[in-house]
Hints:
It comes from Nocardia uniformis. This is Flavin prenyltransferase UbiX. This protein is globular. It is an alpha/beta fold and 210 residues long. α6 links the parallel β7 and β8 (155-156). The chain has a single domain, classed as Flavin prenyltransferase-like (Rossmann fold, 3-Layer(aba) Sandwich), CATH 3.40.50.1950. The protein has helices spanning 26-38, 49-59, 63-67, 100-107, 114-124, 140-152, 170-184; strands at 3-4, 10-11, 14-19, 42-47, 72-74, 92-98, 128-133, 155-156, 204-205, 208-209. α1 (26-38) crosses α7 and α4 packs across α6 (140-152). The protein has seven helices and ten strands.
Amino acid sequence: xxxxxxxxxxxxxxxxxxxxxxxxxxxxxxxxxxxxxxxxxxxxxxxxxxxxxxxxxxxxxxxxxxxxxxxxxxxxxxxxxxxxxxxxxxxxxxxxxxxxxxxxxxxxxxxxxxxxxxxxxxxxxxxxxxxxxxxxxxxxxxxxxxxxxxxxxxxxxxxxxxxxxxxxxxxxxxxxxxxxxxxxxxxxxxxxxxxxxxxxxxxxxxxxxx
Length: 210
């Protein structure tokens, strides 16, 4: 549903996407690409300092390549950006992938850049905040921070692969995760087949699809 903004104009709902320095920026690429194809929300992107290096190392791309997938790109140091204010209406924010450092900052209200500030705004305004936390194994510190953000209202959504839909490619796994993220914001999509019960499912024998 479009959001009626303070100006009275009807615009596409806005979704903030944050990318941090955790491994697997590919998750963000897929999500941004899927949202661009759906064209039902306006995406506002912010990339952490560490993510710039991870993007280069793991994808061979530049941060500017990611920025080109979003409707609006915000510099991480621009604390006066629209997404730093609760008066700027959004559906919420997803941090994908979310590093343990960023998780810790959000859990303890330490907003040292625009990304963590935007996440803090979502918590204080009671908007949806989804953290795609990527680390393994998890220490007790990590688990306590996940508990803290959950108690504050965030949703911790680790990028755990599912196999009930019979994936055969990495693309299938990425599409499922992107779809699970979009589900959290009520954004309609057809990125993966829904579970319709055992009678409608494919038979699995020895770990392979029959």
